[in-house]
Design a protein that fits this description.
Residues 3-251 form the ABC transporter domain. The protein has 266 residues and is of the alpha/beta class. The chain folds into 2 domains: 1-78 and 169-266, 3-Layer(aba) Sandwich (Rossmann fold), CATH 3.40.50; 87-167, no CATH class. It has helices at residues 41-49, 73-77, 94-100, 110-114, 120-137, 153-166, 183-198, 211-217, 235-239, 242-248, 258-261; strands at 3-12, 15-25, 30-34, 56-61, 64-65, 79-81, 171-175, 203-207, 220-225, 228-233. The strands form 2 sheets. It has a 6-stranded mixed sheet, with helices on both faces.
């Protein structure tokens, strides 16, 4: 087991974003989190990545407690992520944006940098070779020298994924990697997500609204609603859940739960 989340609760004033949510993710698993808008999905990723501090609960990564550790330490221990809203440096090239993802791996300090030709240059070349491998993997060779801000939305999402995996993470958190894409772009991104999981061996936690993609590529799926866990399991098991069918498939609602469950995923 790579990640163990136990009884995580998070609130903002009187709003309960997460309520006693528990789940686990095995190493090399592709685990998806789904739920209506406002269900707490991104809040959960923010707790794992350190952007939010839960009110209570525990998050263990590779057996070690994450809570209490600095956000900046998460990449160092093997956690990378992408965001709903693109966070690229628009004025920088694709290559340089991806190189940023290698920053925490640089071992040379100011003194060794003074002796550039005796160490730092070799290190930089090694990192560039790694980045070039990622560029090949994600099939973005043709834009490697383009400024990120000039690219189409789908390509920018791909560059952000490249930067996240440039960290060399054991776990990568993908927050709606296919949002806003056309069908062809979605198919490409889904293929890359599967490949980085199966070929590169990275564990993936993904938030995604496209139910077809989620059910097709995920090993397991967890459903959140109003900050609470509804269920988790194999894709077929989750889709058979009554609450999930009512929320996603438009089934008839019982009177006693209609007010709490009638939602559509945007």
């Amino acid at each position: 087991m790579l990640l163990q989340v136990d009884n995580i609760s998070l609130s903002f004033g009187g709003i309960k974003a997460l309520q006693n949510v528990s789940f686990s993710v095995d190493e090399a698993e592709l685990f998806s989190i789904i739920g209506p808008n406002g269900a707490g999905k991104t809040s959960m990723l923010n707790c794992i990545s350190g952007r939010y501090t839960p009110d209570e609960g525990s998050i263990k990564f590779a057996g070690e407690e994450l809570l209490g550790r600095k956000t900046s330490e998460r990449p160092e221990i093997g956690i990378g992520r992408t965001f709903q809203n693109l966070a690229l440096f628009d004025h920088m090239t694709v290559l340089d944006n991806i190189m940023v993802g290698r920053h925490h791996l640089l071992k040379n300090n100011f003194l060794t940098g003074m002796a550039y030709w005796f160490g730092a240059q070799k290190e930089e070349l090694e990192h560039r070779r790694h980045v070039e491998d990622i560029i090949d993997f994600l099939e973005i060779q043709h834009i490697r020298n383009a400024q990120a801000g000039t690219l189409s939305y789908g390509l920018r999402k791909r560059v952000e994924l490249a930067r996240a995996i440039a960290l060399g993470p054991k776990l990568v958190l993908l927050d709606e990697p296919m949002a806003g894409m056309n069908m062809e772009e979605k198919e490409d991104m889904a293929r890359f997500v599967v490949d980085l999981n199966q070929e590169l061996g990275m564990t993936v936690i993904m938030i995604e609204h496209d139910m077809g993609v989620v059910m097709d590529i995920s090993d397991r799926v967890m459903v959140l609603d109003f900050g609470a866990k509804v269920c988790d399991g194999l894709p077929d098991e989750v889709m058979a859940n009554d609450h999930v069918q009512k929320a996603y498939l438009g089934a008839e609602f019982d009177d006693d739960i209609e007010a709490d469950t009638q939602k559509e995923v945007a």
